[in-house]
Amino acid sequence: MGLLSLSIWLPIAFGALLLATGRDQNAGVARAIALVGAIASFLVTLPIITRFDTTTASMQFVEKLPWIERFNIHYHLGVDGLSMWFVPLTAFITVIVVIAAWEVIQERVAQYLGAFLILSGLMIGVFCALDGMLFYVFFEATLIPMYIIIGVWGGPKRVYAAFKFFLYTLAGSLLMLVALVYLYFKSGGSFDILAWHKLPLPMNAQTLLFFAFFAAFAVKVPMWPVHTWLPDAHVEAPTGGSVVLAAIMLKLGAYGFLRFSMPITPDAAREFDWVIVTLSLVAVVYIGLVALVQQDMKKLVAYSSIAHMGFVTLGFFMFNELGVAGGIVQMVSHGFVSGAMFLCIGVLYDRVHSREIASYGGVANTMPKFAAFAVLFAMANCGLPGTAGFVGEWMVILGALDYNFFIALLAATTLIFGAAYTLWMVKRVYFGDVANDDVKGLQDINGREFLMLALLAAAVLWMGVYPKPFTDVMNVSVTALLQHVAQSKLN
User: What pLDDT does residue 391 have?
Assistant: First the structure.
């Protein structure tokens, strides 16, 4: 079994073991198994970083075995510079989620932690799959654990939010399935994604395929106007669900554009880039303004995620190296920053049981250690230089400047709006006088909470101060992708 298979199936195996531990009288055992499983799964992904060859755009750590031979479907895995960082990122976030749930989840502990470990393996599978049907199976399978997490451990309207999440994302994916089947027959009976990249498709076929993929990936990102499921899902999901949803699951859609839309339908992607650019700018500007008026902290950060993911899709469809690489860097940094923001909201919610901004005020007076972490992550969310949030946004803005000055100008407004809604929340929640008895009675973070926030703070600062390891990995693959897209299949 190769490294990628281990990265996928080890957390799934531990998740299945957790489900077998059963009831809550074994909660202590379940927590221990989950922590061991999450750490082991993360350690398995580290050799992928250390052994990765940054000088080639070819797939690495490739595994290929026959799966359903009658339809020429293979268990085919591999990573390149576009996908490599998402494997360790997913495993790392899973470790954080397990630590975050240690004392907070008291009912159905084994099932909760098991769902996250299984989800971790499935999401890594999406980033590694090089067979179209294998990709689709992993892509759709991720819905099941998240649906259960929201529906069982969520808030008062959890069933509504879980159904909305499931139906939106499933409906979009059905068109993708039609596109995959078309490509299978067009390529002479192959589900090999890399072979699909070389298919000489006519423009009308490319257009239909492009919008079929767009339907699946735009909902997952989510892009405006199919974003309405996300705030509901975030508000009702437990803290761990919000962290994984923002940090990893939104990236599945953006990754789909890189692996399917751009290389398989390059002419259609260039022809309709204005559609993606326009929708991305609406997300950056309009959704930023929507975030500004939110009274619920989770909703504010959820809308912030939509605006930041708009930056990602904007970077991809400007078709220059700074834009595409910046979009990928933004995906990774958003994983750290948004996950940390939701964890901070979770820390407050565990103590006061309210997400309303008005329920707080002067938290820094009673929780100084926690406030220091929270303000750091808020600064990263604003795009402060020296934090992870700055690097990707700056690269995309520079790419946009090369593409069109006015688009760059609109894109740069995210730095203003991001600072406005984030700092407005920080001012009302953390600073000023202690607002009420709930805040007066707050106790600062314990060792477990300090550990999970410190790990994320280290990642945010490391990526902000020294982004070179992240950009070096993707440079060659981004160049190869753009060369491929530039070589029109119609000429």
Answer: 87
